[in-house]
Amino acid sequence: MAAGKYKVSFVLNNKAAEALVSPDEVLVDLLRETFGLTGTKKGCGIGECGACTVLLDGRPVNSCLVLAASVDGKSVMTIEGLEGDSTRTLQDAFLSEGAVQCGYCTPGMLISAKALLDSRDKPSDDEIRKAISGNICRCTGYHRIVAAIRKAADAPGTDDEKD
Description:
Blueprint: E1 6-12, E2 15-21, H1 27-34, E3 53-56, E4 59-62, E5 75-77, H2 85-96, H3 106-119, H4 125-131, H5 143-154
Parallel strand pairs: 1-5
Antiparallel strand pairs: 1-2, 3-4, 3-5
């Protein structure tokens, strides 16, 4: 093992993963630089913008604030790992509602929306706004994003996929 490095073993996008990380390495850098998962965006670096949002054990987190060593034994899901009908429905809703412009915030928004829809069958607009409150969009505003998430929540068959 390299001096000053720690081995972490975790599940990344439903597959076993291992890496050597330094004590100060953050998850966003591990994902982008070691695994090439560039859908997780580097934004502010201080947990304010949400561009780096991933699911950690099913909960949305700012990966710029998570030490890479802390994911040992956990599960990490990035935008590249989202799949299935509910994700496709969510992506289609973002496109049809015009909730995507430059796209920089989109992966984090989709991750936050996915976490919400996995936990709530029919969230209210206030619940949607709260769920995406950690994600900043400078292009579209939030009306279309909220409408897209509501549309995905209301799509036929969405309830069938809840645990």
